[in-house]
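Cross-check.
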Amino acid sequence: MITEKFLWGAATAANQAEGAYNEDGKGISVADILASDSEKGVRIETDSIKEGYYYASHKACDMYHHIHEDIELMAEMGLKAYRMSIAWTRIYPNGDDEEPNEAGLKYYDDLFDDLKSHNIEPVVTISHYEPPYNLTKIGGWSNRKMIEYYLRYCRTIFTRYRDKVRYWLTFNEINILRVPFGILTSGCINIPTFSKENSEQLRYQAMHHQFVASAKAVMLAHEINPEFKVGCMVAAMLQYPLTPNPEDVLAAQESNRINYLFAADVQARGAWPAYVRRYWRDRNIHVAMADEDAEILKNGTVDFISFSYYSTTCITVTADAEKVGSGKAAGNLLSGVKNPYLKASEWGWQIDAAGMRILLNQLYDRYQKPLMIVENGLGARDTLEGDRVHDDYRIAYLREHVKALKESVEDGVEILGYMPWSAIDLIGLSTGTIDKRYGFIYVDTDNRGRGTMNRYRKDSFFWYKKVIETNAEEL
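Predicted model, tokenized:
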């Protein structure tokens, strides 16, 4: 049974929500130089902020100037937790600054104070896809020196918010570096996404540095405040075998391990697993590691595991997917083969609430550590009718996932909280557009940031409010 301490919440990310990209001393992040083409729905990689391009993160949904209004709405919805991120460049504008930016620190002081006044627990992501742009000149996370800059940032926020934040996540979806797009979030912005330079070798090296930084951050956090709870955050990419052919079963096992389980293995178990090292040997990948890294990873394991979950796909190495009536399925980070038993969103993401129960049991069986769902939701084209959005489709999606959550608790899985994506409509990370909305709260803005920025409650807002009030007894 879900207890009264359960953290019913919702999530956002600074670079997709705050805007105010250059106000109050904030520096430029990697996210701030990703231009968007709203006609084509793609991000354009640039080497600086250029005239004639539109940069969606610069305005986003202007949460920076609406934060207290937005927290009031979260409180009205009954949220017990708010999963958010701190913009690194609000605290250290260039990343290598000797002293932090006081205005940025003060902004989050006020934000945390406001959350506390409404009894909303902050769950803070330290680095959510936006390293300082200035640090791209040293190669971002491909350079080990990033660990030093990251820990300086961690020490500052751990100390400043020692009595205001309890739950921390070191990196958002750290395993995204498995896919080519991850190179952008690592700060290696000078390397085109689809180029020979964007190699697995480079991305694994950057990821290793992030794992070491994460482990050191865990130890630092516990030193500063033993009450801190520090978790990892993994993008779940659960795949099923398309057929019962043992080769497909093996392919699904390998895919799940090499795409997301490895990231939790390193951070929860404290070492790179043997199957990854075999993967490296088979592909002639050589990751440089310092002598002390093994001990650091071992001693800096996380207190809990958090993850994002949206959909599942299938994998086959033996069957022709088209001939078995399937074909290709869409996804946010990893595409695959369609599951013929599942329906899909208008973006082609397959809807699989049972998959979340499977994942929760898989992770808890594997690690025996508390779990936290910090992203889960349905992206759709919402229409504002008067002052309301009638999003029954989102309610239907979330209802089934909450049912799966409840069943997982009955299975014996220890779950700390559920924080759907997203509290409020946000700009898309990969597209820089807002056509695909996730929020409980509608924001009046379009793909070019035009609109009043007024906030409107969706039907899902009131549905989730009832879920929280009844502790999921009424769905």
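The chain has one domain: 7-469. Residues 241 and 250 are 8 Å apart (CA to CA). Passed to J.P. for a second look.
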